[in-house]
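S1.2 Input.
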Amino acid sequence: MTRNRPSQAPAIRELLAAGEPSFSFEFMPPKTAAEEEKLWRSIRQLEPLRPTFVSVTYGAGGSTRDRTVRVTGRIAAETTLTPVGHLTAVSHTVAELRHVIGSYADVGVRNVLALRGDPPGAPDGEWVPHPEGLSYADELVRLVRASGDFCVGVAAFPEKHPRSESMDSDVANFVAKCRAGADFAITQMFFYPDDYLQMRDRVTALGCDVPIIAGIMPIQSVAMIERAALLSGAKFPPDLAARLHACGDDRAAVRAIGVDYATWMCERLLAEGVPGLHFYTLNGSLATREIYQRLGLGPRAGSLAGSGSSAPITA
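S1.3 Output.
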């Protein structure tokens, strides 16, 4: 028996309406028993920080569908956390999408992040809609909203989606998702706060006031962040890259620089009135907990590393 049913679980739109910035974490569904143990260790370590919500990703082409639903449902049933389940349209028929939406409802998940999704294989490969599926994220938003009492989130892109022709067209697509029924948005990772702020201004200028939560990727290894930036198309500060490469194989030094930079970004964004911060944890907890400590949020666990400078690195 699950702890929450869709009619009882808090909706993210209600939590955001409280007026205080939200703080949330993203996890990936594990592929092995060892990864599952690591995931649940991280969840238990982050749970005392009392995030507004947590989310669980959905692999390219829906490759992790069953594991995503299972982990999201377990979070709903066995923790005090409010989970958001990811859902992508790629490679799915409408009937399959309705089945996944129903699976979320069955495990007590009321909040869904509706994404068009990357094609299987290379993320920059040709996007081909399923002949019995959907072509755009706004269609998926409408499907989820028509399926029950769900709160729906969508993606936003501070540097525009790689497939968009221009920033103006990308913002217009985002507003279309909001007008289809989206309640909130979470951005792709980015490393220049001004990119987020300029995107937010463009959205506001079109009369859209859907809250856009900033996605933060704490840097924990050079190879990981370079690959993530390449896949997402995010610009990476050259001088930050130089400092990271100068650390060589010293992972602790890399993480310390990453925590400094992420903390500065968070401070700048909070000062600019961002409605929330969403941390891409990569199923680890240490970097996120260190950033929390620097920001003065949550319990100050004695096991955390001592704080250092959060001054920006000039880009």
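S1.4 Remarks. Residues 251-271 form the longest helix (21 residues).
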